[in-house]
Design goal:
428 residues; Nonspecific Lipid-transfer Protein, Chain A; seven-stranded mixed β-sheet; four-stranded mixed β-sheet; 16 helices; 44% helix
Amino acid sequence: MSTTYDFAAFPRREPTTFLERLLARQIRIGRLTVLGPGPREHSFGTVPPDAPHLDVVVRLRDRRTAWKIAFRPGLYVGEAYMDGALTIEQGRLEDLLEIGLRNTGGPSRRNLLRRGLRRLLHRVHQANSGARARRNVAAHYDLSDLLYVNFLDADRQYSCAYFATPDLTLEQAQEAKKAHLAAKLLLRAGQRVLDIGCGWGGLALTLARAGQGQVTGITLSAEQLAVARRRAEAEELDHRVGFALADYRWLTGRFDRIVSVGMFEHVGTPYYQAFFDKIAGLLTEDGVAVIHSIGRMDGPGVTSAWIRKYIFPGGYVPALSEVLPVVERAGLWVTDVEILRLHYAETLRHWRARFTANLDAIREKYGERFCRMWMFYLAASEMSFRHDGLMVFQLQLARSVDAVPLTRDYIDVREDAAEGRHAVADSA
Amino acid sequence: MSTTYDFAAFPRREPTTFLERLLARQIRIGRLTVLGPGPREHSFGTVPPDAPHLDVVVRLRDRRTAWKIAFRPGLYVGEAYMDGALTIEQGRLEDLLEIGLRNTGGPSRRNLLRRGLRRLLHRVHQANSGARARRNVAAHYDLSDLLYVNFLDADRQYSCAYFATPDLTLEQAQEAKKAHLAAKLLLRAGQRVLDIGCGWGGLALTLARAGQGQVTGITLSAEQLAVARRRAEAEELDHRVGFALADYRWLTGRFDRIVSVGMFEHVGTPYYQAFFDKIAGLLTEDGVAVIHSIGRMDGPGVTSAWIRKYIFPGGYVPALSEVLPVVERAGLWVTDVEILRLHYAETLRHWRARFTANLDAIREKYGERFCRMWMFYLAASEMSFRHDGLMVFQLQLARSVDAVPLTRDYIDVREDAAEGRHAVADSA
């Protein structure tokens, strides 16, 4: 009555778990081999000849992990990686993420129902009132110095660098970013400059050092404020640059120039109008503002659940179509929009290399799980800029039609001057 | 029983007609003096010390004209000017228009009801189906050669020039515009190039002349087509450039480069998605498109009733907030947005000067009323670019994240090369 099966006659078993069925349907580019839970082993997809790195083997610790990932990959792949429930046996984390991103439709999603749901969700996630904004900022930026020192550049620019040429070091590319922003700001001596979300003060100090105007930097992070103030004092620049623990909503007065780098991602769509109305209100009649932010090319979306939970609570990456109507209603001129593609991917690659090089020191202070979390954050972000339609936009704004020159040539001229490439007199 | 009044005791009589009451309330910048209807004479506002040209005297022929203007100035000021029912006794037409624009709130209008109404209206005005699009185009562009020869540049660029430096002649600025567009297109030998709305062929011929690719130009104007073909034959370029009477909706195939200059204004918002879906469908995977169009900085609006009736039936000037959602839904990358402010005002100033210089020849063929209509169109358009938030945007689009270089420096380099300013080798 017993029946024997020749298992060897099935060289590749058919997928049976829910996750396996999902992967069998979705993986078209690259090969993903999943070991576990238990003795299970399945391969999905094939290795493309032009991308041999897309061949990754992962191990799942238990059935629970497989179920959670199948149910909500955006949250649980990251969490399983942090907890060691998902380990990579062959290939790199970034290759695993690339396979994931390139097999889920990429940036061109047109499902209207999904869009509607996203819109609803992101208003809930981004109710960044004053108190909540402070908590969100503290969660990330109040992590002590040791972390940021170990992966950022010397000036601690925690935003997308500008690779004016591909061979720049991270330090040079961050200098180039500041020169690029300064050029767009068209700074003149004696002007009042506001930096909203000044971080550890790097940009504000650079502008003050060049002797261009009186700079005010604001942040919601007590840790950043302390560092920025220390730096200003150490350089004896504190008569030209001041820092304050302040919310943009509290500001009054007038500024000739306003710059905001990597802060708009924390504003939240329900506050976009308040933000740009504030910019319009703070700017002088012939003023100029530059907003530098991560954006997405494929329309309104929802920020990854994992990123929201572990990295940036309250964070949101806007599409230009969400920003421009608000700018128009604020009565501001859009005078230029630059789209920086892949610059942030390169920046993140540099950060990850530094983080890896300093892993022992970071692990000692923050532990293994934190390190895995941070590695996942840096790798996932880099891959999103390479394969999932993320970019950085620099929005130059003004209140008057003639606040900035009629052609964009001044941007190059001023950058070159800042970097001493030419002996060009500043003619503005 | 009779009472005598000392009229001289009232050095300035109080306004009494409806139009006069409106003007008394609205004119804050500049002085407008209205003579008539009949013996009436009223001045409104005061001349600003820094703008002595804002001192205009107009004469209204009759009460009917005054009523109509009060009721719907956007349509009837222009019509009265055309018909001689409104004449300018002191000052210039453009000064009258400047006073009008600077006293009606300017570009920052936030009335939601008005916005809603505008949105509703502009869908009706822009139902530019295939047949209607052809009629609309014929109404304007099939006007015979004589008109356009007498106010455009030698190459007949009927769109905003690019004043790379302020001292350029119109001819030079139009050459600079074409070089600027060509630089953004990143043309390489052997590429298939499509010019949607090619006009009299100037840009397509320029690209073909440079030996860069195989160019197809399409237009809906039989008159333009005939001229463009004649020019290609005369230059013996017809093996490199072809022209067709075609609607963009009919196109099939693939193009490496797509350019469209001053045509998007005729598409109509109901067809924006079809337009950009078509661009996405026609573009190769590594293709690049550049769309050059008039835009408005203050959000969705309604094109002037007068312009719609007499100049561009079916025309509409979009805000960026109306264009970007559609581009995102089409799955296209926005790789650059340049905002050209005041360049079109300068272009229109040149056109008007040429038109005026050739007035006798034009009047002989088209009559006095047409000349007044065209003068009003050119002056009103110029003033809208100076004082009412109009601009030109150049939208560079791609299907891949790496279709264009990572910095915008190539634009300058290629322009310089095109104009022989440097001996820069084309490195793309």
